[in-house]
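Regression test case RT-17, inverse folding.

Input:
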């Protein structure tokens, strides 16, 4: 019973266990993969931000060199010192230089703020003749030597970084070399390559941005006292700076799914901000994790299934071996029972054979004499009698051999009378010796075909008849009755003994249950086994005259 439950529960429990583990693994993997993807994205974003900042730095470094070199140029000094003959050649030189370096404009402003020469001298937007004394980079460079300012162009309205360098003649300031850098190309490349990037100045105002809408927004509140509306309007084109949208800086993506990493640019206190979207990476990592869990699940199920299959197969093999062993034991027991029975009936059979053998001897001796006397006909009669007697001996030995035959055959259709006759034949002597009368009145039903097997039906009947003979007193009788119903033929043996002892009634068909001094207690156990094996049964009842055993045999 408990084995059955175990069997039923084992795969269900194993499956539930695996599913639970898989669920926990899924939750843990999701979390771990998400964290790992976040860390990875953050690290990658940091590296990318550092590369972008370094690129920007070297670009600015390159541009800042140009005004520094030009400030020491003799032609520049001459023009700003008042020698206007240098203007034409300088205009051309500045134009070439701007083209080579990629600067938006390079121009020379005298000490009063008037532009003397410019790279864009040929264009309608030429700076030549413009007064830049109001620009703070001009005033600052004149006062401090160098200056830089990010602002909108007064004419072009295009944003850019103005880098200025003072030109000296000894201690006398002659003017300023200015260069304007525009960042359209960089912004364009950022826009193409990443989710977003922007650069802020010391005050947190966005200067360069992949999204033009972000420019001149503020990333943090700016103290009103430090601002001048007039100069803001001049620099940024608006006095009212809007604030930037917020991006997550840590692992908390609840505000927005985007993540921001900041990297300082080693110039003017600028910061480069890189915006990345970690979600695709998180999604991919989580999907990979789930795939791994799924694979793990499949492998686990396959392993558990394999183990269960293996255990089942081993059990089945053990069961089959056990069944084979039991069946062999049963055969051996049945055979032992047959041999024991044979031993018990041999005395009677010996008597059966002794008589015809003695008669054969007498007929043979007489025959010899009859031939010597020339009485051929009488001698032939003797031979015929000898033949009949040897045929009878043959029948007896056949019965004995048949009964002791080891192999039990599969059931087949046979008349029940065959088994009854054989059994009675072998026990005839015992009936006679013990003066027990066999009463078998209606023999007609015994010809009913049954589905059985001669040797085994005979064995059961002999067991029952021997017990009946044991129980019946001398002068008693044993009755045989055959009855039929739709499916079974019932062969009842009723004796004239004292019936089944109540002490043994419950264990009658169990091995070694006996009340006899020399009994073994196997006869009924084996008979029960044989009848069940043939698809029938064996039952008993106590009757007023004695015990009755009924063999229930399937009809053919
Ligand atoms: P054994 O004959 O060796 O005792 P059995 O299995 O044939 O073994 O019988 C078991 C017991 O059943 C007998 O010892 C006897 O007590 C009881 N029994 C069997 N048949 C009869 C019967 N016809 N009348 C009374 N008791 C019987």
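Golden output:
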């Amino acid at each position: 019973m408990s084995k059955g439950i175990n069997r039923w529960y084992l795969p269900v429990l194993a499956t539930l266990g695996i599913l639970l583990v898989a669920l926990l693994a899924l939750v843990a993997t999701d979390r771990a993969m998400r964290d790992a993807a976040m860390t990875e994205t953050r690290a990658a974003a940091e590296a990318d931000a550092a590369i972008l900042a370094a690129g920007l730095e070297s670009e600015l470094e390159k541009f800042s060199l140009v005004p520094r070199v030009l400030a020491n140029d003799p032609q520049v000094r001459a023009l700003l010192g008042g020698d206007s003959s240098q203007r034409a050649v300088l205009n051309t030189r500045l134009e070439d230089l701007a083209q080579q370096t990629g600067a938006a404009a390079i121009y020379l402003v005298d000490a009063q703020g008037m532009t003397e020469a410019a790279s864009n001298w040929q264009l309608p937007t030429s700076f030549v003749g413009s007064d830049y004394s109001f620009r703070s980079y001009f005033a600052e460079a004149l006062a401090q030597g160098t200056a830089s300012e990010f602002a909108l162009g007064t004419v072009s309205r295009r944003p850019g970084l103005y880098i200025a360098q003072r030109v000296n003649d000894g201690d006398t300031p002659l003017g300023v070399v200015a260069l304007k850098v525009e960042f359209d190309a960089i912004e364009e490349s950022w826009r193409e390559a990443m989710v977003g990037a922007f650069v802020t100045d010391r005050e947190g105002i966005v200067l360069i941005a992949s999204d033009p809408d972000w420019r001149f927004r503020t990333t943090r509140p700016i103290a009103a006292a430090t601002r001048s509306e007039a100069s803001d309007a001049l620099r940024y084109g608006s006095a009212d700076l809007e604030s930037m949208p917020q991006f997550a800086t840590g692992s908390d993506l609840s505000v927005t799914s985007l993540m921001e990493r900041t990297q300082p640019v080693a110039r003017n206190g600028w910061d480069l901000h890189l915006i990345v979207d970690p979600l695709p990476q998180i999604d991919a990592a989580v999907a990979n994790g789930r795939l791994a869990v799924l694979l793990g699940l499949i492998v686990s199920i396959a392993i558990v299934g394999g183990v269960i299959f293996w255990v089942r197969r081993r059990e089945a093999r053990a069961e089959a071996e056990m069944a084979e062993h039991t069946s062999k034991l049963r055969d051996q027991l049945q055979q032992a029972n047959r041999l024991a029975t044979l031993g018990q009936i041999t005395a009677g059979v010996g008597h059966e054979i002794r008589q015809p053998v003695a008669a054969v001897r007498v007929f043979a001796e007489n025959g010899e004499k009859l031939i010597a006397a020339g009485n051929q006909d009488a001698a032939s009669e003797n031979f015929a009698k000898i033949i009949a007697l040897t045929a009878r001996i043959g029948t007896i030995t056949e019965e004995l051999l048949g009964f002791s035959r080891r192999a039990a055959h599969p059931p087949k259709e046979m008349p029940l009378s065959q088994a009854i006759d054989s059994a009675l034949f072998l026990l005839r002597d015992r009936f006679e010796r013990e003066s027990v009368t066999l009463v078998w009145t209606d023999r007609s039903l015994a010809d009913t075909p049954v589905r059985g097997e001669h040797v085994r039906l005979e064995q059961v009947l002999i067991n029952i008849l021997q017990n009946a003979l044991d129980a019946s007193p001398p002068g008693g009788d044993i009755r045989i009755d055959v009855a039929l119903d739709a499916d079974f033929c019932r062969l009842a043996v009723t004796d004239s003994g004292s019936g089944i002892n109540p002490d043994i009634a419950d264990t009658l068909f169990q091995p070694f249950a006996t009340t006899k001094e020399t009994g073994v207690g196997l006869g009924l156990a084996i008979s029960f086994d044989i009848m069940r094996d043939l698809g029938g049964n064996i039952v008993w009842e106590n009757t007023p005259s004695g015990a009755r055993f009924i063999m229930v045999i399937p009809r053919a």
